[in-house]
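notes to self, project folder thing:

trying the whole complex as one job this time. last attempt i did each chain seperately and stitching them together was a nightmare. two parts in total, labels are on each line so i dont mix them up again. if this works i'll redo the older ones the same way
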Amino acid sequence: MAFTPAAIVFSVLTVATYVIANFVYLRFRKTPLNPVITATVALVAILILFDVPYETYMEGGDWVAAFLGPAVVALAVPLYKHRELLQKNLVPIAAGIVAGVIAGLVSGTLFTRWLGFTEELILTVLPKSLTTPVAMQVATTIGGIPSLAAVFVMVAGFTGILLGPYLLQLLNIDSSIGRGIGLGASAHGLGTAKAFEYGPEDASMSSVAMTLAAVLGALLSPLAAWLLL
Amino acid sequence: MKIVRIILQLLVLYGFLLIGEAIQALLQLPMPGSIIGFLLLFSALLLKIYPLEWIDAGARSVVDYGPLFSGKGVLLLPIVIISTLITMAAAGFASQYIANRSAAQKEES
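result (full assembly):
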């Protein structure tokens, strides 16, 4: 890991921006203020304002990557806390996760293939519905570009919180289980933040869905890449 | 003392991660070592080998960054958006449908 001034400045700046953005979100609890959105916008603005090249900013990237692995392992904790909810609704949850993960992998692969994208980009889009650390590691494993995969993860997350409520309403998905599993399986942590606004049960469902979708997605992504390419 | 606990718990997470990566390398599994580490930690919690209190404060940190793309690459955005909506529809519909059906069955019996 590089121990340059830029690496220290930009990793501290990134974390500090996120902490402030999170504080603002917790204060007002409005979807557009989601800290991932506001912190991203603020950081991009700072980088443009001070004319910082992406490579310089990313010197802190190695440091960030070092936290991805433990972040994945840590997902075991929320899943364990929701184990009773999972046990009670095992069949519908499993059905939703399997349907969602397969639909996401197949549609993502087919659309990118139809439009003639390179194999590397197809493999980068593939893990978009998984939580960031898992998606980046899956992208690495199957031959995609991890940093770009993280961007698609964010696009999926924004889609989930901005368009998700309309889609759910349109399809008459109006139960905690339907909303929670739908948001968590497609839009990971951001979807779970949105689910919190519907209520605690939606949020628990979404948290469980995010974790299980990550595991199943990591298992099925190499298979999907092999089958569909 | 809280900071010491968080650092210790982060080290535990790293421990699980290293074991997961060792297993992945040893058995040549096609999934990331971190997922194996996650499964190991979840099993250890379920089997009460490792108590929840010893890991609960462990910090999580995820940060994202975005390179820009131009030309045809812009098409990747609508693809991801549509695919995400398909994913949500499939997951939400399937879970709600099965949940309603098993609830109806319970009422009948």
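what i see at first glance: Chain B has two domains: 1-63, 64-109.
need to look closer tmrw
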